[in-house]
Amino acid sequence: MATPGTSVVSTSISPSTSASFHDRFTSSSFAFTNPGVRVPKVLHPIDNDDLKLLLLENISQEAVKAFQAHGFHVDHSAKAMSEDELVEKIGQYHAIGIRSKTKITERVIKAASKLLVIGCFCIGTNQVDLSTAARAGIPVFNSPFSNSRSVAELVISEIVALSRQLFERAYEMRTGTWNKQSKGCWEIRGKTLGIVGYGHIGSQLSVLAESFGMRVLFHDVIPLMPLGQARQVDSLETLLKESDFVTLHVPELPETTNMISEKELKSTKKGAYLINNARGKVVDIPALIEALRSKHLAGAAIDVYPAEPGANGAPFDDQLNSWSSALRSIPNVILTPHIGGSTEEAQRMIGEEVSMAVTRYLTSGSTLGAVNFPEVDLRAIAPEQMNNVRICHVHINQPGVLRQVNDILSPYNVEKQYSDSKGDIAYLMADIADVSPRDVNSLQAKISKTNANILTRLLA
Ligand SMILES: O=C(O)C(=O)COP(=O)(O)O
């Protein structure tokens, strides 16, 4: 593991010695042991052979290794970067990998003249200006569920710890005081857990909680199939009124900002507990402090905050969040430094998954799984089609584009073509037969000059 505070560490291995994407995933070794299997043509971007990637926030070494195996140059850092640092550095990179702290703002995207793709090595993508990225032709990939088990397990531990005032007792022992008591300490069996947001984490948690004998209610904006004996309730208010524990698993959106505020906290049962491992802005913390001080709530576990430090060792104080010392002073409040998804298992899986999506986009143009982009993919080019070229054309979604592009392609046979749109952005992929190597650059130049062009890449 990289130590906190280390600067960017730069590594690359030569493309000639590295295994290609297709070697690994359609697998020459598989073909070797299975002589009937055909290995597709391996594609390379025609105009940026030396792809440079910046990985921030201590992204797993699995990702570093996977990128290096494709010959990419990787700069890795344990820290997040500020907007100013990013603006200064991002211009040299073709891809960036971040977790939940680094903000990719419009200003950063404007400075990112070479940037082709953003990988969020986490679930959340609220830290990226997704629409500006899409308009700049930059797809954003994330890992929609690989850390959900880790978060669900943490929530179970917090339910038990809050219910038994575990952190209070453990703190007293650490500071030399014996304080054995049962008052206000409960089993969780038979208690009601209210899950707000029944996605990958909420539904996983629902199963774990039932195995502890809890009754599970959930609220979601769409009707969903309840797992086990869980029951969907039609309003947040009903959930708050009936639950002994309320846990939040919603994304950061304008609609979820301060979703739990004074009014909602007043709707909770007296003696209930609140758990937030979702996003800091979902809970109005001064209102939570009030609900805890008045003893309406019996405790809270908080893992995420409106402002979080960018590196380990940095202070978590009132300068960062004005209420931080007030929150720290309240008994039976468990504060953790955004560790919900921080397990070896989750980080390894996320590293593999997001590096694969980013690599697939860079080397084959596929946007399957992108969160801000039309999802387009083409089947591989057969090995005998050596002079086939793949066109990846991101453009403004307006009439007449396909006619213009297909006019340019008319001297060639279009082997396959697929196009889709999402809002203002459209993406066309096409495989063109028998393009002589000397025509490849002019083909790219012609398509790039069409009036709706955002980004045209050719892979050959
Ligand atoms: O997956 C998420 O969205 C998380 O909140 C975890 O973020 P992290 O990778 O720990 O910065």
From TrEMBL:
<feature type="domain" description="D-isomer specific 2-hydroxyacid dehydrogenase catalytic">
    <location>
        <begin position="54"/>
        <end position="372"/>
    </location>
</feature>
<feature type="compositionally biased region" description="Low complexity">
    <location>
        <begin position="1"/>
        <end position="20"/>
    </location>
</feature>
<dbReference type="GO" id="GO:0051287">
    <property type="term" value="F:NAD binding"/>
</dbReference>
<dbReference type="Pfam" id="PF00389">
    <property type="entry name" value="2-Hacid_dh"/>
</dbReference>
<keyword id="KW-0028">Amino-acid biosynthesis</keyword>
<comment type="similarity">
    <text>Belongs to the D-isomer specific 2-hydroxyacid dehydrogenase family.</text>
</comment>
<protein>
    <recommendedName>
        <fullName>Phosphoglycerate dehydrogenase</fullName>
    </recommendedName>
</protein>
<dbReference type="GO" id="GO:0047545">
    <property type="term" value="F:(S)-2-hydroxyglutarate dehydrogenase activity"/>
</dbReference>
<dbReference type="InterPro" id="IPR029752">
    <property type="entry name" value="D-isomer_DH_CS1"/>
</dbReference>
<dbReference type="InterPro" id="IPR029753">
    <property type="entry name" value="D-isomer_DH_CS"/>
</dbReference>
<dbReference type="GO" id="GO:0006564">
    <property type="term" value="P:L-serine biosynthetic process"/>
</dbReference>
<dbReference type="InterPro" id="IPR036291">
    <property type="entry name" value="NAD(P)-bd_dom_sf"/>
</dbReference>
<dbReference type="Pfam" id="PF02826">
    <property type="entry name" value="2-Hacid_dh_C"/>
</dbReference>
<feature type="region of interest" description="Disordered">
    <location>
        <begin position="1"/>
        <end position="21"/>
    </location>
</feature>
<comment type="pathway">
    <text>Amino-acid biosynthesis.</text>
</comment>
<keyword id="KW-0560">Oxidoreductase</keyword>
<dbReference type="InterPro" id="IPR006139">
    <property type="entry name" value="D-isomer_2_OHA_DH_cat_dom"/>
</dbReference>
<dbReference type="InterPro" id="IPR050857">
    <property type="entry name" value="D-2-hydroxyacid_DH"/>
</dbReference>
<dbReference type="InterPro" id="IPR006140">
    <property type="entry name" value="D-isomer_DH_NAD-bd"/>
</dbReference>
<dbReference type="InterPro" id="IPR045865">
    <property type="entry name" value="ACT-like_dom_sf"/>
</dbReference>
<dbReference type="GO" id="GO:0004617">
    <property type="term" value="F:phosphoglycerate dehydrogenase activity"/>
</dbReference>
<keyword id="KW-0520">NAD</keyword>
<feature type="domain" description="D-isomer specific 2-hydroxyacid dehydrogenase NAD-binding">
    <location>
        <begin position="158"/>
        <end position="340"/>
    </location>
</feature>
